[in-house]
Amino acid sequence: MVTVPVVGTALLLIDVINDLAFDGADALIAQAEAMAKCLATLKGRAIGAGVPCIYVNDNFGQWRSDFRRTVMHCTAASSPGRRVSSRLRPTRHDFFVLKPKHSGFFDTTLDTLLKTLRIRRVIVTGIAGNICVLFTANDAYMRDLKLFAPRDCMVSNTTADNAYALHQIETVMKGNVTPSTALRFGRAKRFPRRDE
Q: Do you find a cis peptide bond into 128, omega within 30 degrees of 0?
């Protein structure tokens, strides 16, 4: 078991609200549906522990889009990714950041939000592990944030691509890739006040 302190930690759900409507997505959809079950469980435990959950999602080139409209589109019956998006649907307590490119930090308010919440470590999850999750993890590492990337909570187009992304996060970015089932949310150490 790996203990992740509650204070100073945020769960990032990257591109999980996704219609997955592109050629050759069938294999990814099957993987994403299995991943969504693990991620939904992890998110539930994070919420129970008081860890903020932040959706970092593509704007799909829709510069006038809002996140509610994106959720409605991606959970519609016609959306190939509806099961994933429905299982991971955000609540009114969650935060969200729309991103125009691969990294959740590029031209977004994510940096400001994390600083406001006093976040020092992030749990990166989502789709696709070898692109948007990896780019976001890299930018988090560049900002001296400690990384967790539970291997059962991210998927890529192929298992080889996903393994490569996890290897990069673990070896280059010194991230922890323990499965979500082995992550435990714990209290941060409390240091006594001077008068105690």
A: yes
What is the tens place of the pLDDT at every residue in 161-186?
Answer: 999 999 999 999 999 999 999 999 99
Say how many C-beta atoms besides its own lie within 10 A of residue 182's C-beta. 12
Residue 196 lies in a domain: no
Distance CA 188, CA 7 (A): 6
71-113 pLDDT per residue, tens: 999 999 999 999 999 999 999 999 999 999 999 999 999 999 9
Instruction: Tell how strand 2-5 and strand 183-186 pair up.
Output: parallel
Of 1-5, 43-47, 172-176, 188-192, the least confident: 188-192
Does some domain include residue 131? yes
According to the model, what pLDDT value does residue 189 have? 52
Task: Tally the domains of the chain.
Answer: 1
Q: Which domain holds residue 90?
A: 2-186
Surface-to-core class of residue 37, CB atoms within 10 Å of its CB (0-12 exposed, 13-18 middle, 19+ buried): middle
Asked if residue 192 belongs to a domain, the reply is: no
- CB neighbours of 4 closer than 8 A, spacing ≥ 6? 121, 123, 148, 183, 184, 185, 186
